[in-house]
Amino acid sequence: MSEVERSYAMKTQEIILRSFTMKLYTIGYTKKSAQEFFETLKKNGVKRILDVRESNSNLFAGFTMKQNIGYFLKEICNIDYQELKILAPTKDIRLKFHDSGYKEWETFKNGYNELLKTRDLKNQIDKNLLEDAALLCFEPTADHCHRRLAAEHLKEIYPDLEIVHL
Q1: DSSP H stretches of helix in 25-145
Q2: How far apart are CA 41 and CA 63, in angstroms?
């Protein structure tokens, strides 16, 4: 096989593999204006928000309060909204992390990952639900947020997921 043919074959294989990849986004709303939040979702082609917060109805959630977010998403972006509490940490795990002043990340991470293993996600979450969906949580970045851990766990189940943190 010539160098040109090899290069063409590699590019063709890359295109084929990319066509089988599903994007799963994650997004936090803290430190984002409503305009920035909704424009980011639209710009990236998000089709569905999967709310993975254990607590999503308090006033601190602002424009992402459970009572409002579905309406805003549909009207502003034509994006569907669904709660996916199976990916939320338990209140106990979350409060221990908060009570530590957010210093016990490894403890939180290990506890949350163990929790996910008990929830049989492969049989609980239809893979198609994840396509062009975004996991929504509070933290401004995914670094120390359970949405990143949830996305990584889902990628272990569905290796063709491409995780994109917005």
Answers
A1: 34-43, 66-72, 91-99, 105-118, 121-124, 127-130
A2: 14
Q: Rounded distance, CA 38 to CA 140, Å?
A: 14
- Residue 160 is predicted with a pLDDT of 94
Q: Single out the residue of 111, 108, 133, 124 nearest to residue 157, CA to CA.
A: 124
Closest CA to 150 of 106, 97, 112: 112
- E strands, the chain, where? 22-28, 48-51, 80-83, 133-137, 161-165
Q: How many CB atoms lie within 10 A of CB 29?
A: 20
Regions in the chain scoring below 70 on pLDDT: 1, 4-20, 59-61
Strand partners, 159: none
In the structure encoding, which two tokens stand for residue 116, read together? 């996910």
**Spans of all domains in the chain:** 21-165
C-alpha span between 9 and 19 (Å, rounded): 15
